[in-house]
Structure prediction request, 90 residues.
Amino acid sequence: MAGFTAKHKKGKVSFTYSGDLQECIDKAEKELETKQGSQEQLFLIWQYGRAKKALDTYNRRIDDLKSFIPLAKEELERKKQEAAGHEKDV
Prediction:
């Protein structure tokens, strides 16, 4: 049975094959035809887009929380000091 494998290391790709090379080429071409534009590929692209959008929204919320908390604490402290100032006047 013919087939090939690809190994990815440090930005380089090396290939090894077993069996008849022409048979490997034929199988690879058939697989490429099947994979390009397949429903699975379209689904994965759709899924990736949704996941990326969700992650961006999640991270934006974290940034909003990090920005809000110190400002809110500062405002609360200001209101406490203001309230304490009014009590002294009374």
